[in-house]
Amino acid sequence: MAELRENEQKTLLALERLRGRGPVDQLVKVSGLAHAAVMRAALSLTTKKLVRTHERKQTAIALTKEGSYHAKKRLPERRLINSLIKLGGEASVDDVADAAGLEKKFLTIALGWLSRKDWATIKKKERVLKSLREPLTGNDEKLLSLLAEKEPLIVEDLSQELQKAVSLLKKRRLVKVSKKTLRELELTDAGWDLAEKGIEIVEEVSQLTPELIRTGRWRKAKLRRFDVTAPGPIIHPGKIHPAQQIIQRVREIFLEMGFTEIRGSIVETAFWNFDALFQPQDHPAREMMDTFYLAQPRKGKLPKKDVVDAVAKTHEDGWITGSRGWEYTWSADEAKRLILRTHTTAVTIRYLAEHKEPPVKVFSVDRVYRNEKVDYKHLAEFHQIEGIVMDKKVTLRDLMGTLKEFYLKLGLKKVQFWPSYFPYTEPSMQSTVYVPELKTWVELCGMGIFRPEVLAPLGIKYPVLAWGGGLERLIILKLGIEDIRLLYKNDLGWMRRTPVCQR
Amino acid sequence: MPALTLDRDRFSSFVGRPLSVEEMAKWLPWLGVDTDEIGPDYVKIEFNPNRVDFSSYGGVARAFRGLMGWETGLPKYEVKEGKIVLKVDPTVAEVRPYVVSAVIRNVKLDYDTVRELMEMQEDLHWGVGRDRKKASIGVHNLDAVEPPFAYTTSAPNEVKFVPLDKTEEMTLQEILEKHEKGIAYKGHVDWASRYPLIVDKLGRVLSFPPIINGELTRVDSRTRNLFIDVTGTEPNAISRSLNVLVTALADMGATIESVRVGYSDHVLVTPDLTPQQMELRVDYANALLGLKLSETKTIQALQKSRLDARRISKGVLEVLIPAYRIDIMHEIDLVEEVAIGYGYFRLKPTKPTTVTTGREHEVSAVANYVRQIMVGLGFVEAMNFILANEVDHYQKMRRKAGKMIRLANPVSTEYSIVRNDLLPRLMKNLADNKHQAYPQRMFEVSDVIEINEKAETRTERRLHVACVSSHPTANFTEIKSYVEALLANLDLKNWEIKGTKHPSFLQGRAAAIYVKGRKIGVVGEIHPEVLNNFELENPTSAFEIDLQRIIKTTR
Q1: Fold annotation for A63-164
Q2: CB contact under 8 A, B288 and A453
Q3: How high is the mean pLDDT of chain B?
């Protein structure tokens, strides 16, 4: 025999007290349990074959608005016949109605029923009523007065005659009928056996308390067994932003590969963002259309004069670098303009200007800005990854090898390298990687060796390998989102839904 | 990036061999162009702005032939000596001093070539001409006008002519005020007292550089002979533009004829297609590329890139660069030509031998500790832009706008300033998440930028952390517990929390956080008016800490 839970025991006891059978409503009263608890117990007791459930259809009737009016005043035909008898058994319709005080709207109905019930005749031409006898109280009237006393009534509990009257009153729209299912429980033989053995109710404990543990009372207490399959309330853990998770992974990869993280100003002078990287001042990329300039503060300071002069000369005629330069007049004022950096290379070149001794291996994963219309593919503010190797004998092929390893750590095995162009690197390359999930090649990092026109003015003597690219493209690939704008909307629904584990 | 759609059959005829779309798509990228779109009978390429010579079929085809080894070395272009003269009036010196010119004979134009010619001009205007400032090109129907020509100036209202695509005569002044090209480019001339003009023998206007040509010399598919002018402010830029253009036309089968450009003190015969000379050290190329190419192999690679070279001493080559390769400005550019001629696809990746140990930045380390603690406290990390706007940042937070970092050219009103604290964006995040289940607890650990007049960039980037807790029973006690949990786990000691006034927080429920006597942040219950401003209904408590102060204080 399966053990019974507290509510099941209480239900069994209540049934025993009701002599083995009773409707649920009554069991609720007797057991003191909630309706739902009794229903749940009934279900599990039925499965354990201790009780049987009987279902009974029940029809309840109640008065309609018109019905309760007539129940109070009596039926209109009764009111007519009573006053007709008082008037001597024969009178005109109007007189009878007047005497009865019958409302006009009920007159036709009343006349109809008078004749249908055979209580009176009507001479149509003279509109004269003549009573036939004093009629007995009909079942319909009895039912009506019963209903006036108590509503609703259960049809199945009524005598057969009264049950017949139900349909009559229903047709006259004096009562409304509703059906419901009534459940009754009955003890089975096994149930009786168990009840007769005696059920001692042990209080069930749902929450184990320090009190129970300390006193040892938990030994006597019955710990309620939970429905372990029932859904529990949802909890949302705190978590790191999904994009930040990927940023962290990329940082780890750089660190694993022996690179040191660098960090620099977001507001930058045009000098370090452009001029030091040999981007001519009249270059289209420097125009307002692509770069955010500051209105306040507007201008920054330039570095040491010798550095500025060397950069200026290199732009104008190549200085001593062997380059022909950009052949224009360089403006210090233009170089002082403050902007939101368009790439992290501004930080890199500042760092290299201060760290000229090889080897240097540095990286950054940081915010950059482009004055771009924001849409599903573009953001005005995004992250760039950048890696730099400066050493005595590094080559373009080494750069390819470094990238290959970097991609491999990101799970991207197939890489291709193409010739490309960047203003401050030569030779330059573009890399595409095969993304198995998308079954397609995607362009990721660009790379190259810093131009002599960049290195010489800063006194850097060894080749500098550089690669970089926007990170958001990789992030949306990894997270499987299509609209880049979702990334920084901080939609809690999305963040709560997105698993911490991203592989 | 500029683009060019290469029709398979037409491109094949330029290359001189039948090509399939597959072959084109396979090999074109090795020239350094992107294949943007591959169609049933075309390949659309994008090329880098330094390679304006790729703006024509001829330009791509000659490089393609070289890459495939079908024709290598310097392409030969002949310039026939012509008699046509372009006289330069000294008055142009004040507005647009330089001009070069060429005549093209027997060109076969059709709808496609006319369009290609126009696109090539636009690419040159952008890539070399700096939006027509340094150089701008005019291409004319030579047979509609009569030489000799003159590059001169005129007062704004002196001359009238019918500009291209119009039917009415307009003065130069009217063109600058009303014509769409005039409005777009007037900045290049409107400051001068006299405007540049090119006229023929009879004084008919060919062009008003750099604004617009005349309708008179319109080029269409019936045009057979062309007169080309390139004017500008920089002599090299105009010569280079002319060279790119005339070589592309020569590749279409036309003949190049020189023009005598007569300045007051000298005469230039243009175009000058003499190859540029530059030295290349073979060791230099090998060291950077990681190759061991011999002198001969290096020369062969250069020839495949349509350059030429000869050995002038041990390990040194003299390289001849065709006149259309205007992008080559340093020996390093020749190194890339070697690599392209050798084939990028043949370069095998190697691992550098540089050995170093990596180290994360201190600021990142602190940010990550903060992340760990805040996530442990049940907060979800938000990432917001540094770009912000005044309304959210000041007005809605009940703050007076202070001295802020403001963009000169914001792309939208949503992003017009740079934030100096994190909290306003977190409030906006709550406002955007009203439909999500509560409690809502979010934090951000990220950068803000403050004005610092002493700094080189007049600004200073600082790491902050801020957090918000929003739910029906959020209050000061709760947020104080959170902030103290954070401070304790950042290994700070002896912090003090003292009552303070702050417009964004409820008075009596706002406090300042001090460490070693320095104020590092604020904590409290958000003012109900701020909640109303963000249309929030739940009580919200918050804190913000300047972590930069802690980084400095602890180390």
Answers
A1: Arc Repressor Mutant, subunit A (1.10.10)
A2: no
A3: 94
